[in-house]
Amino acid sequence: MRRLVTAVVVAAMLMVSGCGRQVTGLNQPSLGGGIVPVGQTLIRFETAGQLDFQNVTYLIVFNTTGNNEQPYAQGYQNSDFKNWSAYFIVGGGAGFANSPGLYQIFQDPASGNANKFQVPIPQGTVNFQTSIPNANAQFGFQITFNRCLLDLPPPSANQVPPVTSNRTCPPYTYIATNWNVSIFTLDRTNSPIDSLGTTGPSDTSYKFLFDTATLVNTNNFKPGGSVAVQNAAAQIVGIEVFSTPPNGAVSSPSPVPSPSTSPTAAPSRAPVSRTRT
User: Fold this and answer.
1) Which of 105, 104, 106, 99 is nearest to 125 (CA)?
2) Which one of 1, 15, 190, 257 has the lowest number of neighbouring Cβ atoms within 10 Å?
3) 250 within a domain of the structure (yes/no)
4) Whole-prediction pTM value?
5) Is the pLDDT of residue 273 over 50?
6) SS3 10
7) Cα atoms in the Cβ-side hemisphere of radius 13 Å centred on 62
8) Quick check: is 93 in a domain?
9) What's the pLDDT at 137?
10) Distance (Å, rounded) from C-alpha 39 to C-alpha 228?
11) What angle is formed at CA 46 by the lines to CA 189 and CA 216, rounded to 5 degrees?
12) Could you list the residue range(s) of the whole structural domain that residue 133 is in?
């Protein structure tokens, strides 16, 4: 009987180690706990074809104001960047073909114009991978980042705000804990090609958000029948998000958005936690 129990325990240990999952800290893999380090968020950008960083630009766009409004591609086309707070940019030729850039969007209350500023990324705060281990989609990339990177004060006199890399967020100083997130692809003329919407970049019917003060393991995959894109490298399959908050409850600055739902698919197997050295 003792040998049988031992064999069962060993088999269970082998099953866990074979899942490609590193569980630490909160020990709740089904909810995102321990999948990424405390204070960090992992976002997977999944495409229908092999990535093309020379001819396609990939954007991960955040609305961190907490107003529950989605940042859509029209904001880029119109240059008003409505409901855009910041975005990661990958690809588009020289500059971001090998590593992502980060931009802050500032809505000037005096002029009503939107301005963008490139934000320096401190060493070790972003981990960029050009492949996605154990994902639902075969193609795509993932970015793991310290959420404090997006806690940006309004810039002053065109000066890029400082970034503090030795913090764990939330709590935040300038942004809310609830984030609306969108992903887009652009062509060589910076025209939007695809989005999370079923009818392409002009679709404004979708919404995707999560609370960075909680454990997160969520996704939004485009359903079958969505409008196809000619260039598979630019066709979006979906987005996955894993996020681990600080230990303990965190209050969210007002306004706090109302709960919302979005189409989801079964989560992929959890990624292995990695950090850049």
Assistant:
1) 99
2) 1
3) no
4) 0.78
5) no
6) helix
7) 29
8) yes
9) 72
10) 36
11) 125
12) 2-244
| 248: its two tokens | 């303990």
Residue 252 lies in a domain: no
Q: Cis peptide leading into 170, omega within 30 of 0?
A: yes
Closest listed residue to residue 240, CA positions, set 159, 134, 161: 134
Question: Which helix (H) or strand (E) is 17 found in, with range?
Answer: helix 2-17
pLDDT tens per residue across span 154-179: 887 666 666 766 788 999 999 999 99
**Residue bearing tokens 């065109």:** 158
Which amino acid type is present at position 238?
A: G
Total count of domains within the chain: 1
Question: What are the helix and strand counts (H, E) for the chain?
Answer: 2, 12
Distance of alpha carbon 37 from alpha carbon 215, whole angstroms: 11
Reported as a pLDDT band with limits 50, 70 and 90, residue 129 is very high
Q: Is 183 exposed, middle or buried (CB count within 10 Å of its CB: 0-12, 13-18, 19+)?
A: buried
Count of positions (residues) in the chain: 277
8 Å CB contact between 184 and 73: yes
Do the domain assignments include residue 181? yes
Name beta bridge partners: 141: 45
- Rounded CA separation 11/16 (Å): 9
Tell me the DSSP string of 67-115. S-----THHHHSS--TT--EEEEEESSTTSSSS-EEEEEEE-TTT--EE
